[in-house]
Records
---
Amino acid sequence: MAQHPGVGPASSAWSHRFAEELPELVTPWQADVPTEPRPVTLNHELASEVGIAPSTLQDPEGLRDLLRGDGSAVAMAYAGHQFGNYSPLLGDGRALLLGEATDKRLDIHLKGSGATPFARAGDGKAALGPMLREYVVAEAMHALGLPTTRSLAVISTGDTVRREGAKPGAILVRVAASHLRVGTFELAARASDPDVLQRLADHAISRHYPEVADSDNPYLGLLDAVVAAQADLIAQWMSVGFIHGVMNTDNMTISGQTIDYGPCAFLDEFTPGAVFSSIDHGGRYAYANQPGVGLWNLSRFAETVLRLLSSDPDEGVALATASVTKYEAIYQAAWRARMLAKLGLPDTTADSTLVEQLLELLDRHGADYTSTFGELATWLERPSAHTESALWTAPEWTAWLDRWRDAMNVAGLEGPTVASRMRQVNPTRIPRNHLLEEALDAAETGDLEPVHELIDAVTDPYGMRPHPERYAAAPPPGFTASHQTFCGT
Ligand code: AMP
Ligand code: MG
């Protein structure tokens, strides 16, 4: 392997435990290393965290070394239900696992690094726009405090890829707790060697849920833990108005991190049925459907571990059913607590329909989801300051504000206290669709200033630093109705 100060020692400190423990689920492969790679965005802090000296990523030689890794990269195999239909073999068609940064056991992964044996008809490449989109949204989610894979770098390859015209090519370097997916279990459960599934489950337990290893039934502990992690994750998505867009089982992690930012979007106007993805014709992955899809995906996961739960098939089904049935209550409790916190209220608040009624009013009056919480905090601070929007001038809104005031009184909280609690949990800067579109369009023409400015704004979601006002503003009228997002494949 080529020597380069910083990168050599970092990659030589990687381990390859997934590939060693589950050789049936990987294919050794190498990245197509571009001759003139250039850094487009670099996450210095994250690079240092995984033991890569950020300075080495500034020049082509260091980038090439990173992409080569230590020569032990693999493409991971997985299956998955896509829009409800089972695909027996998907796998990393254009991605590679370089290794695991040893002390933290974080995957270092490439996306857009060339066709692998799993590529089928795909070119194995990625365009700059979608890779920057994933970089920005994942880092925004992290800054919001949500479990997510992270973005280390977007590297331009200097090549051109064909996607409705010629686009600049790029590689995303991603860091994740792991790349174990529900789809990985779906593949392992159908492997001819029954041992693969058990080894995979043991690997997942040791990596993500070591606390269940010594329980009476560790595999039931694993299922319970994944159900709880996903219920909590999806509750968090809902509370920030995030739409994943392509919740196929191969895009759902065992760790509970959000993964694979493709046609994702944040709500502007609150619309429960919102769908932005150009390929989601039936609205399967609409905003309000996400909790239900999460349960559907977890049921597919539960099916894969049935025979590990018990040697008695009936008992296995009973245990799995009981585990998955807990999802609803965990989701509801997590969602309610987060939504009440957005209103500055404790999760003991007795008014059980206050949140639902708020959302119904936002929907009815086309109010912007994120901005409304800021306006509510401002109203508590300065009751005369409210806007003249349809929501704020609606008669039923005054009645809702009274109910909210009552809930504050019951909790013994004064308006200014509630307002300051709200400011701590309600973001003002999220990667809104119009901001992303504008920044990514500029990046494609070679102007990187807007995307860097956007990253700076959305990684400071609660507005601790000054940013141009437009990063906190709703889109221009008419934008949302016509907006579509794309998978970026
Ligand atoms: P995704 O929709 O990004 O989760 O990808 C679904 C499947 O398609 C995965 O197996 C990917 O590796 C594969 N895939 C997506 N884009 C490409 C591409 N450009 N070349 C090869 N495989 C791809
Ligand atoms: Mg995927």
---
Amino acid sequence: MANPSLLILAGDGIGPEVMNEVKRIIDWFGAKRDLTFDVSEDLVGGAAYDKHGVPLHDDTMAKAQSVDAVLLGAVGGPKYDDLDFSVKPERGLLRLRKEMDLFANLRPAQCFDALADFSSLKRDIVAGLDIMIVRELTSGVYFGEPRGIHMEDNLRVGINTQRYTEAEIERGARAAFDLAMKRGKKLCSMEKANVMESGILWRDVVTEVHRDYPEVELSHMYADNGAMQLVRAPKQFDVIYTDNLFGDILSDCAAMLTGSLGMLPSASLGLPMANGRPKAMYEPVHGSAPDITGQGKANPIACILSFAMALRYSFDQGAEADRLEAAIEKVLADGARTADLMGPEGGTPLSTTQMGDVILSALDESL
Ligand code: IPM
Ligand code: MG
């Protein structure tokens, strides 16, 4: 059988730096676990704009549609702030999500024990935290029409539209319930049914889908209360299902509970392809971090954990994903820290590559 194919879109800022470490991990699996991927690389975001004048070339879009999984680094940077909205780096990422129809965005927030003291919350509130946010990723206010800025009575008016069909709510809900079945069998759905009709529909549809998952305990929460509960008592949650915009905000909030945004991976999954694998893109939750770009300071763990999610969700290699996650847990327990993980006690942080080195050694030890 042909090797599974991966398209790497490292993107901008620290994207290429953290992706370099992922490439070394991919090579390790080829050399030591007989798990070889056909890897190709291309441009996205500002890097694509610099070369092609667009943040995602049509050829790159076509490649992304044809591979088994896409690994994305990060997009954006101050250099591109003044570009026309239609060619901003972020549009490249949003096009990938939309055209690949990656409707289920899985954002796990797990607190590694070694990092519990780095959280802005007290250790006992976050230690052992393991929640999964499922964010609807291809609809809602990110894509709704009408949108734009126009003139009305000599005043500029900005419009975006929150729009959800019941089918869109339902398929994401099924993904969330399926995950809940494999985890703690608890699902909390978040919307603003108190002020938004789309929220009322959201609550109705999730309640209907629940009939097919009687074992899962379902609750509903207004998203603002959800934000409050996430910082008050995050361990009350198992799986959270929410819309595109609330999911964007709540997942940043959940990420920070774990100590550093540099730790959080994500998977964006769509419908199954002909080979049975879901359309998929994996990316760290953090952005391009222009403030530290090119300094070798970036934490590669979020990007490496995103590859672990690819092993699990695209390639049915749960045991190898466990191996990679355990290697990361081990180096953290042994005290390996990049700059974002330095506590008040100080010390010398590892560079991006040095963090890659220790993870590779831990992988070797796992054999
Ligand atoms: C995210 C990011 C993106 C989003 C940006 C870069 C377009 O914040 O993946 O959370 O808003 O979805
Ligand atoms: Mg975000």
